[in-house]
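Lab notebook, bench 4. We co-purified these components, and the gel suggests they stay together. Before we commit to crystallization screens, I want a quick structural picture of the whole thing.
Request: model the full complex, all chains together.
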Amino acid sequence: DSGVTQTPKHLITATGQRVTLRCSPRSGDLSVYWYQQSLDQGLQFLIQYYNGEERAKGNILERFSAQQFPDLHSELNLSSLELGDSALYFCASSQAGFYTDTQYFGPGTRLTVL
Amino acid sequence: AQRVTQPEKLLSVFKGAPVELKCNYSYSGSPELFWYVQYSRQRLQLLLRHISRESIKGFTADLNKGETSFHLKKPFAQEEDSAMYYCALTSGSARQLTFGSGTQLTVLP
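Here is the predicted assembly.
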């Protein structure tokens, strides 16, 4: 499957904990985006990377951080988790990170904080 | 700041009836407009984008710059069209997708 992949599919953890979400972009795509989908906030952009460098930042909390590695996979780290962080986290990738590019989404990681 | 508005949270139509999902945007420049579809909280799939001007699964959308709208239309709805539809835009100043709040379409038998 050459599409965007995300692991794990589901994650259940407790408040105060730290988790790492992983994303592998489509083959050939250099840019990765992270989005959060929650019932109250809808779909919100978190952060974008292009070829290992941060390109744009959205409504990402200071407790959250991300990086893109030389092999282009990306990780989103969420720490000091709160109940309100429970959401579906999507990764998307695009070829060059231009605004005209189509972004292709992964299946998401569903995070539940208890 | 760019903004996307989808005024209808829920929309129900009968099978075979025409359907229109509304999308309005605010951005002073020339944005790129997209429609994404999400089935049962699965991954978002690109349905169409205005620049490609093609019809996917019978859906079309016309960009009206005067009214700043990008409504999605289908002449004859099918039950398999039931899903959540998101209108979104990107721009030269913001490469990330800005999404509307989504419209849940239900096609009744």
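Chain A touches chain B through 26 residues (CB under 8 Å). Worth comparing against the SEC data before the next meeting. The longest strand of chain A covers residues 42-50.
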